[in-house]
Amino acid sequence: MTNLDLRRKRLIGRGASLIWSLFRGVIILGICYVIFYPLIVKIPSSFMREVDMFDQSVQFVPRFLYLENYKMVWEHMEYPLAFWNSLKLTTLVSLLQLAACTFIGYGFARFRFWGRGLLFSAVVFTLVVPPQMIMIPLYLNFRYFTFFGLIPEPGINLLGSYWPFVITALTGTGLRNGLFIYIMRQFFRGISKSLEEAAYIDGAGAFRTFLQVMLPNAKSAMLTVFLFAFVWQWNDYFFTSIYMRNAKVLPVMLDGVAFDIMTTAHYISDQYKSILDNTGMVLFIVPLLVIYAILQRYFIEGVERTGIVG
Amino acid sequence: MVLKLRLTKGRREALTGILFTLPFAIGFVFFFLHPFWQSIRFSLSQLKIVSGGYILEGVGLANYRTALVVNADFLRVFVEAVGRILIDVPLIVIFSFFAANLLNQKFKGRTIARVVFFLPVILGAGIVLQMEQTDYIMGQLRSGAVESGVLSGAVLRQFLYELRIPEASLDFVIEAVDRIPEIIRASGVQILIFLAGLQSIPRSLYEAADVEGFTGWECFWLITLPMLSPLILTNAIYTIIDSFTTPTNPLVKLVRETAFGGGGYGLSSAMGVLYFLAIAIILLIAGAIISKFVFYEE
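The joint structure predicted for all components is written out below.
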């Protein structure tokens, strides 16, 4: 083993790691491109005119920034109103889901009781069954809501109000709530019991201990759950269009914007419909991007720290 | 005396636990189990809306017969949806595993790369994804890429054929290449789960391996892969559920359109039940196969 050999070996090692870095960089850039691709398409096309769609010399880049699309979509989506309604609904629902799932998750993590295993497999079961399967009965239940027989037939119509969301959120059966219960349970199981024991010795009850000792320690996990709940609720078209078909919230308004322009303003071609849809999607996505930009740190670190992996 | 005290303590614990989980128990019974049961009943009957409610008329298995034999779309879409999942799930799990390992390394711009990789979790759900599917511009670009792209199906097929790759796996490869964007965009949560798993592997294992003179390659096969194997199961199951319930799934659309587009609640419920059975069977098979390869520390 001469000095020269060693040097050559080190040189090869450095070369290999340089090649790997390059290779990795290319792959990561490529993947980023694929992820951004829909946005790269949407943003320029939202500034195009209808004639640009037929002009072969216009590809990707519009001739000039044509703002009329935004004006039109903004008006027909009733954007300020729809945004405000969406914000209200999403904030309310995701906060309720967070509260309920934290509460329920803590119960599963800390207390031994008869039927716990069975009830927890029920949580997993709710995740496995596609919501489409129970969609019609749910729809009819809320259409003729009898509060489990307490209200006389034919019951009241809860569709079109926030109640179906509120009720399912409070009982941990909303959109992907099983996952949130699972995350919170895993998190609470990972916290040492000594804090609670100290509180119990001081004479605090289970609920007070939960509120005053456990919650302050669960901030990171709760933030993660809240973000997931918020984003998924904001994006949700499935339940929103079933429970509140005529509500002026963003997903519903976005879905119908081109049709609305067609029926109230003038005929539009497929090409122009696409431009308008893309403009609407940009308007829909921007608030999400802003939230993500502010909170992405908690989003990623939160998941890593919550011990989602058990 | 001591015994009695312990008993009450245990009972109090049980009672508190039941109180904490009671909301879910109620919700599960009324907004899950009951609708679940109803949907099976609906699938066996014809539902008629009358003033102030609805009535059910039993029709036996007629709805199932309609779904499987009479309805032109269901069986085709059903087979397609199941087939697509069989292709997607392994690809998504493998890709997210690979991406998580990539993102776990130290390099410049790692934070930004992570932010971008998880962007699909934020954007790739719900209405936007649904609209992109039928969007004219996206459709044009997609077909344009096929016509002019280097990786167009025909060229790739010819190339692979000349490499003497068996016909059966040929289709899989072409399908896989075709679906790269979808696969990347459906992997956000899975990458997150693998990344969390990677960071929970004790550093000491790698240090010990280093002392023993293991190469990076050996470390990967002997430490990383076995330690992450339980998460492969988790992610496979998550992916199956996710791709079965995403609103862009053509079968999901069909079930929905049948219900609200005049096809009848009974028929739609029958489709839903068949769909659920397919998911359950696939999950059981996937779970049984993958758990054979899972390594548990205990």
